[in-house]
């Protein structure tokens, strides 16, 4: 019975991915005519055109650059922000932590025009850095909020012991706190990476030149033709953009599940 | 090592006073234990000494320095925490040497000191392990070593043994006494365990509701408790109490309770009160065939060499210790006598102990 429920849930969760994976190997005409899940014929035509006839590799590189900028800028901000909000005391601390997530209450579409104008003045339009800064703005508040759970699980005695031993605040943060919450920081780095990897709206607005386009922009550009949508190609593009993230999870995931902080107390 | 002086120490959290006017001088090389029930202010007092908690009022002197406004790292004290607070991502060796390194000591000196402490605490084999690969007792020794390696003026310990199981606690207690004696350390130790306090402390500061109610060597705290609270808290099994009246008949002072009368020894003739609380410890009772106090047995607990017998005497429930060889069952009627020299009388109003002429 339990197995059945698990299989059912897995099916519901994985079915769309399965469909996309299968669709990516089917000719476009068949997808339009035949809606069934089981393909009549298989082809790698979609992948051939994705890898050789589109700007796929350039988009991957661009997406990767923007995502790395985003991770590198947001992690120090998240760590410093989370540490100061959740492990130090200052006036207005609680209010600040409450308003942290309020960044997300604005519909992002509303921000497009003002952000474009501001970034234009700062000469950040049509640059990967500008795009990454926008992604950082979206990753940081939630990242801080995520990291607090890890910080709160650390006993305050760790910092107190360091304070009694005469170890300064900065050194305590760098050499005691950060190593203890390393799994959390890795999780947040992955979160920031994915935020950036999948971001569409601001990449669309801020990256004007074709050779700066990231994966989501590039793919939409060629998938949606003027009169028809190439579904098979779209599916191959979706798989092609998920594979790098999937590989990243495989490499880093093992790392971050391992509980480094076990044994700190008791 | 240095002496420590706490003068009029007060701590308030908002309107609540958690430490009230604590005055304690701790001598150079003294082992002082703050003992009391949870929430009595003992840990807060310790945290003020170490500098993790600010003072509302008063002064703290370590050696001849006023340290009120010094950050913890500049007070030259070391603290052992209840949960050890080891840096779990570092090896034992790095845990021990970390503070020294942060203070800029040469690598050679650090290694020398770490080796010496590791030898002292039997950690030599464990130096390259991480804390999670250690047993509770070993972690406790690392925490202790991290304090010892700094060679501080004062050791502060906040219930360092309470996470250990019973047998290990006894063993570590002994080792801790040996270590601090060997180092001739000034130690301020906090515990809620009265046995730990009695066995380790040169002097005890018994705390209740934020106040130090008695500051004396363990024997004196046990034999001459300042008030009913101390008498009840220190000593196991706890002291018995019952309300009595004191009458004068035929030039004698007689204790009258609802179940028995007893002639008071002459050493108590100086007291003038007519009402009091009688206190006696369970081991100060002795079974007798006739006379004495009579009671009905309700519960018998076998402790090994002795039995703890709970009795109903009049309206009171009392407990006495008897040799394990006595065959006693619940429901039995027993007679017992009290050791006249070990009686305590407490004032009913303020619950302070009334001095007899023999004792003080």
Structure description:
The complex is a heterodimer of chains A (266) and B (360). With 266 residues, chain A is an all-alpha fold. Chain A has a domain at 54-223: MetI-like fold (Orthogonal Bundle), CATH 1.10.3720.10. Chain A is 73% helix and 0% strand. Chain A contains 13 helices and no strands. Chain A has helices at 2-23, 28-33, 45-53, 56-87, 93-99, 108-121, 128-152, 157-164, 169-180, 182-198, 201-206, 215-223, 231-257. The longest helix of chain A has 32 residues, at 56-87. Mean pLDDT of chain A is 86; it is low at 259-266. With 360 residues, chain B is of the alpha+beta class. Chain B folds into 2 domains: 4-232, Rossmann fold (3-Layer(aba) Sandwich), CATH 3.40.50.300; 238-346, OB fold (Dihydrolipoamide Acetyltransferase, E2P). Chain B has 8 helices and 20 strands. In chain B, strands 6-7-8-3-9-10 form a 6-stranded mixed sheet, with helices on both faces. In chain B, α2 (92-102) crosses α3 and α2 runs parallel beside α4 (136-148). The longest helix of chain B has 18 residues, at 166-183. The mean pLDDT of chain B is 93. The interface between A and B is medium-sized, with 24 and 32 residues.
């Amino acid at each position: 019975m339990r197995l059945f429920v698990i299989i059912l849930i897995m099916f519901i969760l994985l079915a769309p991915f399965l469909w996309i994976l299968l669709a990516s190997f089917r000719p476009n005409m068949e997808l339009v005519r035949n809606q069934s899940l089981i393909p009549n014929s298989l082809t790698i035509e979609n992948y051939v055109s994705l890898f050789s006839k589109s700007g796929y590799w350039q988009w991957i590189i661009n997406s990767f650059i923007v995502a790395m900028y985003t991770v590198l800028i947001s992690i120090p901000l998240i760590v410093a922000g989370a540490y100061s909000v959740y492990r130090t005391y200052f006036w207005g601390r609680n209010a600040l932590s409450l308003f942290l997530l309020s960044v997300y209450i604005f519909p992002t579409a509303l921000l497009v025009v003002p952000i474009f104008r501001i970034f234009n003045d700062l000469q950040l339009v049509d640059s990967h850095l500008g795009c990454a800064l926008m992604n950082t703005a979206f990753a940081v508040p939630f990242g801080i909020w995520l990291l607090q759970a890890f910080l709160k699980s650390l006993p305050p005695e760790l910092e107190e012991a360091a304070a009694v031993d005469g170890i300064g605040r900065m050194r305590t943060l760098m050499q005691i706190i950060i190593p203890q919450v390393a799994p959390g920081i890795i999780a947040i780095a992955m979160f920031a990476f994915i935020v950036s990897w999948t971001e569409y709206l601001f990449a669309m607005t801020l990256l004007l030149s074709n050779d700066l386009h990231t994966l989501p922009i590039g793919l939409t550009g060629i998938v949606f033709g003027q009169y028809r949508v190439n579904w098979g190609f779209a599916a191959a593009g979706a798989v092609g953009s998920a594979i790098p993230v999937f590989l990243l999870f495989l490499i880093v995931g093992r790392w971050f599940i391992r509980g480094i902080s076990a044994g700190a107390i008791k | 090592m240095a002496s420590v002086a706490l003068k009029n120490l007060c701590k308030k959290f908002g309107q609540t006073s958690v430490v009230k006017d604590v005055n304690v001088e701790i001598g150079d090389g003294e082992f002082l234990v703050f003992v009391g029930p949870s929430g009595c202010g003992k840990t807060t007092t310790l945290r003020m000494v170490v500098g993790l908690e600010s003072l509302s009022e008063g002064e703290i002197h370590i050696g001849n320095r006023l340290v009120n406004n010094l950050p913890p790292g500049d007070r030259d004290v070391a603290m052992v925490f209840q949960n050890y607070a080891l840096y779990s991502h570092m090896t034992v060796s790095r845990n021990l040497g970390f503070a020294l390194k942060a203070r800029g000591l040469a690598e050679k000196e650090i290694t020398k000191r770490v080796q010496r402490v590791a030898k002292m605490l039997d950690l030599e084999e464990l130096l390259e392990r991480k804390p999670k690969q250690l047993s509770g007792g070993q972690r406790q020794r690392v925490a202790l070593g991290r304090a010892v390696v700094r060679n501080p003026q004062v050791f502060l310990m906040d219930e360092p043994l309470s996470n250990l199981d019973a047998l290990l606690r006894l063993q570590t207690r002994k080792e801790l006494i040996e270590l601090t004696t060997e180092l001739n350390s000034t130690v301020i130790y906090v515990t809620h365990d009265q046995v730990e306090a009695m066995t380790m402390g040169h002097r005890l500061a018994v705390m209740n509701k934020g106040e130090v109610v008695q500051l004396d060597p363990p024997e004196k705290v046990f034999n001459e408790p300042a008030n009913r609270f101390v008498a009840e808290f220190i000593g196991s099994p706890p002291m018995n109490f019952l309300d009595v009246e004191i009458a004068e008949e035929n030039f004698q002072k007689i204790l009258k309770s609802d179940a028995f009368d007893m002639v008071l020894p002459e050493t108590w003739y100086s007291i003038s009160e007519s009402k009091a609380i009688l206190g006696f410890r369970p081991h100060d009772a002795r079974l007798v065939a006739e006379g004495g106090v009579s009671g009905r047995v309700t519960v018998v607990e076998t402790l090994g060499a002795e039995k703890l017998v709970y009795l109903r005497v009049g309206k009171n429930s009392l407990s006495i210790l008897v040799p394990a060889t006595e065959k006693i069952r619940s429901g039995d009627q027993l007679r017992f006598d009290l050791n006249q020299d070990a009686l305590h009388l407490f004032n009913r109003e303020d619950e302070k102990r009334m001095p007899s002429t023999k004792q003080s």
